């Protein structure tokens, strides 16, 4: 990052955790002075509406601005939403890697790439990205949907979980489904991915077919899980723009073709 100069111009991304500052539901635009960021640390992380998008280093305890969740921006097209994810994830990385994990010296931010570096031992830390699988399971004309403990009384969605060390993505799919609902799956195939800066995940989506087993809930994670026919009334689903919703729509189409 670098010191933002008075004449610097573009769109400005200010974050607090997984939230960002908007003005009339848009990122603030203009020069650094009129947006109150001159003299702060920042860097350009891409283009937004054909203008530079500046990421401003997270301001501790910023009480002057009202921040909204990144989730409110799911309506944007994929390229814009992913760019906002980049900024949120980078600021999370910078604020959680102020000190070197090898020797404890305070890191500095080099200007040649998104990283932090230790001036004492020279170790360079790169942004941490936590891969997580998300999978839609089909059984003939039915899709498996689960109501998680954090969503009791709310949405039913696909199953997901973090990848463990020494595990392939496909192994994670099999393990998470078996752990959370006691089922075995087959015909696992890649669907797509979505950055998910809550705070630093990458959701890797898969489609899978039911192989065997009866639903057995992991009570600590899952409140309810059921098979739903594609042509019956469905419960509340995840919002448009999420990879979960895309997986569900694709699976329902496959159910209709079966």
Architecture overview:
With 258 residues, this protein is an alpha+beta fold. It is 18% helix and 35% strand. It contains three helices and 15 strands. The strands form three sheets. Strands 1, 2, 3, 4, 5, 6 and 7 form a seven-stranded mixed sheet that branches. Strands 10, 11, 12, 13, 14 and 15 form a six-stranded mixed sheet that branches. A hairpin with a 4-residue loop joins strand 13 (184-196) and strand 14. The longest helix is centred in the middle third of the chain and has 19 residues, at 78-96. The model has no long low-confidence stretch (mean pLDDT 96).
Q: Nutshell version of this structure?
A:
Helices cover 18% and strands 35% of the residues.
Key features?
6-stranded mixed beta sheet; 18% helix; elongated
């Amino acid at each position: 990052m670098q010191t933002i100069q008075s004449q610097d111009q573009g769109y400005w991304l200010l974050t607090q955790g997984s939230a960002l500052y908007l003005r009339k539901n848009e990122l603030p635009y203009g020069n650094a002075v009129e947006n109150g960021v001159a003299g702060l640390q920042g860097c350009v992380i891409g283009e937004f509406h054909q203008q530079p998008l500046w990421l401003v280093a997270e301001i501790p305890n910023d009480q002057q601005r009202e921040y909204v969740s990144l989730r409110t921006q799911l309506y944007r097209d994929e390229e814009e939403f992913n760019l906002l994810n980049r900024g949120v994830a980078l600021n999370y990385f910078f604020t959680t890697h102020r000190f070197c994990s090898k020797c404890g010296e305070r890191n500095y931010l080099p200007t040649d790439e998104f990283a932090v570096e230790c001036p004492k031992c020279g170790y360079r830390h790169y942004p941490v990205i936590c891969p997580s699988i998300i999978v839609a399971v089909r059984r003939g004309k039915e899709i498996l949907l689960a109501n998680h403990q954090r969503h009791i009384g709310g949405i039913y969605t696909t199953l997901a979980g973090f990848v463990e060390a020494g595990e392939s993505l496909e192994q994670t799919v099999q393990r998470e489904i078996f752990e959370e609902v006691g089922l075995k799956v087959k015909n696992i195939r890649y669907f797509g991915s979505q950055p998910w800066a809550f705070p630093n995940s990458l959701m890797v989506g898969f489609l899978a077919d039911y192989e065997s087993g009866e639903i057995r809930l992991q009570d600590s994670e899952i409140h309810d899980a059921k098979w739903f026919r594609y042509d019956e009334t469905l419960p509340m689903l995840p919002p448009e723009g999420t990879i979960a919703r895309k997986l569900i729509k694709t699976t329902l189409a496959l159910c209709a073709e079966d």
